TrEMBL record:
Any single GO BP term: proteolysis
Coiled-coil annotated residue ranges, if any: none
Keyword Acyltransferase: no
Pfam families registered for this protein in UniProt: Peptidase_S49
Source species: Pelotomaculum propionicicum
CDD domains per UniProt: S49_Sppa_N_C
Entry keyword annotation includes Hydrolase: yes
Top-level taxon: Bacteria
Protein's recorded name: Putative signal peptide peptidase SppA
Keywords assigned by UniProt, alphabetized: Hydrolase, Protease, Serine protease
GO MF annotation: an example: serine-type peptidase activity
Family, as annotated: Belongs to the peptidase S49 family.
Length: 307
């Protein structure tokens, strides 16, 4: 079965490359003609948010803070753009990456642009960190959002090493240099250090949401136990401003920016070739099945994550 799926995947890759080379889409797709004025920029944040480069694999995508920050700076420099919609479809990611994007989004707002966050299927944890910095947040009633919290995990592989007869010897300059090693258990002192790091970033998260939502931190803390909310629940709790889809977010951004009528849309940032090729064609279902059968990629558990 895997060989059949692998053959299909390779065939689709070849077809994708042929189409990509033939089409060569540009970075911007504007809905509208004539002189550029009164436009709304759109920046997509899809997949896990990391400090690595953005990328779109066959069955997963990754939102790199560097490329997204660059797109936000591009929006700030463009005088024709009156507003920007940040389209979020992400379960979260690393704390530092979300903070980098959030800081650049704040600079964009200070440049005079209106920023509206539009939530897709999921805009949780690190993605909510980013959304909290927008002027307005629009979510679908069934969007999963919230998950305000911080998590860090480590693997303890001592039992496995014992079964396969493997052993390690560590030389270190200080008692905490090998914190997080999978070859031994954490000490009580190390657990206290880890928890202090988690608590500090958690406090930063709450303060950021409180500032963005114009609330006291005491109002946010009861909602910040890691749970997720539907878009409708989030609106009732004041975590989002309006229920609606992507088009509603674009109209809201245009209205707040004083644009008359239907705003023209300009896509900013890196194109997702797989979204362009397979959107609306059932491709997402195919890639989801293929990914579950063929992907063996793991995650770095020794990273502090907002997810």
């Amino acid at each position: 079965m895997k060989k059949v799926i692998a053959g299909i995947v390779l065939g689709v890759i070849a077809l994708s490359l042929v189409i990509a080379l033939a089409v060569k889409p540009g970075n911007k797709a504007s809905a509208g003609a004539g002189a550029r004025s009164g436009e709304v920029g759109v920046i997509y944040i899809e997949g896990a948010i990391t400090s690595d480069r953005s990328g779109s694999g066959l069955w997963e995508s990754q939102a790199g803070s560097g490329e997204i920050a660059s797109a936000l700076r591009e929006a700030a420099r463009d005088p024709a753009l009156k507003a920007v919609v940040i389209r979020l479809n992400s379960p979260g990611g690393t704390a530092a990456a979300a903070q980098e994007i959030g800081a650049e989004l704040e600079r964009l707002r200070k440049s005079g642009k209106i920023v509206v966050a539009s939530m897709g299927d999921t805009a949780a944890s690190g993605a909510y960190w980013i959304a909290a910095g927008a002027d307005q947040i629009v979510a679908n009633p069934g969007t999963l959002t919230g998950s305000i919290g911080v998590i860090m995990e480590r693997l303890d592989l001592q039992g496995l090493y014992g079964k396969i007869g493997a052993d390690t010897e560590t030389f270190k300059s200080g008692p905490y240099k090998d914190m997080g090693s999978s070859t031994r258990s954490s000490t009580p002192e190390e657990r206290a250090i880890y928890q202090s790091m988690i608590d500090d970033i958690y406090s930063q998260f709450i303060d950021h949401v409180a500032q963005g939502r114009h609330k006291d931190a005491a109002e946010i803390r009861p909602l910040a136990d890691g749970r997720v909310f539907t878009g409708r629940q989030a609106k009732e709790l004041g975590l989002v401003d309006q229920l609606g889809d992507f088009h509603d977010a674009v109209l809201l951004a245009g209205s707040l920016a004083g644009i008359q009528g239907e705003p023209a849309i300009v896509e900013l940032g890196q194109k997702n070739i797989f979204r362009e090729l397979f959107a609306g064609s059932g491709g997402q279902t195919f890639w989801g099945v293929a990914g579950s059968l063929l992907s063996s990629r793991g995650e770095d558990r020794n990273t502090i994550n907002l997810k």
